[in-house]
């Protein structure tokens, strides 16, 4: 709107606003990147432009701690969470979006209300469950517990997507005598890729970023996921926080995420707003 | 089709529906309903983290108990009420900032200007950054001695001595709120933008022809029209902010000046190994959130009824 008002003062004001917003949005990560390339005492000098290009921080996080293993854990957990959530979400979406039965609306509301659970409210119960199942200090425990975040929105978004598909496809297939399972895998699945990419990505991001469960349900360095590994990077003492290494680790786990989000920008935005607007 | 055949067909459809629903329902029961039920159960016991199977029933003693004329328990603990107060301050502060900045961001994203696509991409970046990373990044930028924020403010002459953003109890809450707002404003902006894009173009044309001042247009036309979307955004963010944990814990640990209800409950549960007392705190937090969710759902249902769907 603003750009259409042609008075020069308004134009300058608008571009100034854009510039200030861009600095606020982008500077923190930019600053993390340039900090991560500094070594030794250079880190304590404030520079606004890249001042050094030392990869020391990057090599040392892999050499001095099992950061490679942490990345692998995060990947395994996130991919498994995406897979399980999509399977459970798709089967439920077929039932909720394509079948009429009593309690369907109540069921959707119940699923949605789970997304309002505070994490600490299930912490002790989940801790007990994970111990009983022998999944403590094990990525399996995280995969299980993360379903509490991913199932509600997966079911919700996939259900509203499958509901909006035309009725004819299904009717033709039923006429040919297709069983529900065939219906799901042969007819609906190929049409649902857009919604699956959206929900899959959101589930991946949630699992990749989760902190509290990962902090509570893992114990040893080599079982941790990256968020906890980053939060627990410490120096020799309280006064020697290795900021360079923390920033290097942060950059490593964030760059792929930013790339994913920018590549799938439209899908993610539509998923976020659809979940919220319909919720 | 014969009557009986049709009804048996319908029955079969219903059975199939439940069959397809079953795996998800089992999953949700195991990871959500059951753990929640156990937490509520533990709230009435003296279970400890090291031996959770070995507990005695306390009734409401974790919440409140009178002994020798003194009251003990959660609702008599000043630290708990401090956590409740901090949570309310955090939620009100962060959501207020996010809504104002979110609307501004959305208006800019909705404007037509060269480079708009790039700007929209830039808005997504804080959202894409993991909370742990954004908390650490800002902790470094807000470092009292070596931080770029103090350096910049001092270079510009706005302050004369460094500010201890994350150590001064009067400032820590403000710092944490600002960092949370930085990360979550893009989400609010996206919701508002979606609403802005659905606005009818003709009233803007009319307003422009009549020479109405843009600020008047915003408060007179835009704001009332995007109010439903803003309400949804505010409720979503409020529910999130009331259970905040990550950003607070990573930036300031268990410090009293920022401790929220979630941080308090986790400290009792994990650090002090007091599953009973910690579960009691978690249960209270759950009840607050559940109450607000119920209010929201009732309001939403009333809305749906009004629309006559």
UniProtKB/TrEMBL annotation, chain A:
Q: Where in the cell is it found?
A: Cell membrane
- Listed transmembrane segments: 12-31, 75-96, 108-130, 142-162, 183-208, 246-264
| Signal peptide interval | none
Q: Which SUPFAM superfamilies match?
A: MetI-like
Q: Which UniProt keywords apply?
A: Cell membrane, Membrane, Transmembrane, Transmembrane helix, Transport
Principal location listed in the UniProt entry = membrane
| Membrane topology of this protein | Multi-pass membrane protein
Whether Transmembrane helix counts among this entry's keywords is yes
Would I find Protease among this entry's keywords? no
Instruction: List the InterPro entries hit by this protein, alphabetically.
Output: BP-dep_ABC_trans_perm (IPR050901), MetI-like (IPR000515), MetI-like_sf (IPR035906)
Per the record, the GO terms for biological process are:
transmembrane transport
Annotated ABC transmembrane type-1 domain ranges read 71-264
Highest taxon in the source lineage: Bacteria
Q: Which Gene3D superfamilies match?
A: MetI-like
| Family recorded in the similarity comment | Belongs to the binding-protein-dependent transport system permease family.
Which PANTHER family is this protein grouped with?
INNER MEMBRANE ABC TRANSPORTER PERMEASE PROTEIN YCJP (PTHR32243:SF18), MALTOSE TRANSPORT SYSTEM PERMEASE-RELATED (PTHR32243)
Name the chain's protein.
Trehalose/maltose transport system permease protein
Record organism: Thalassobaculum litoreum DSM 18839
From TrEMBL, chain B:
- Bilayer topology term: Multi-pass membrane protein
Q: Which Pfam families match?
A: BPD_transp_1 (PF00528)
* Annotated compartments: Cell membrane
Q: Does the keyword Transmembrane helix apply?
A: yes
- Keywords, ordered alphabetically: Cell membrane, Membrane, Transmembrane, Transmembrane helix, Transport
Gene Ontology cellular-component annotations: plasma membrane
Please list every transmembrane segment annotated in the UniProt record, as residue ranges.
Answer: 17-37, 88-109, 121-142, 174-197, 217-239, 277-299
One GO BP on record is: transmembrane transport
**What name has this protein been given in UniProt?**
Carbohydrate ABC transporter membrane protein 1, CUT1 family (TC 3.A.1.1.-)
Q: Does the keyword Secreted apply?
A: no
> Domain ABC transmembrane type-1 spans what residues?
84-296
The record's section on PROSITE patterns has: ABC_TM1
Family statement: Belongs to the binding-protein-dependent transport system permease family.
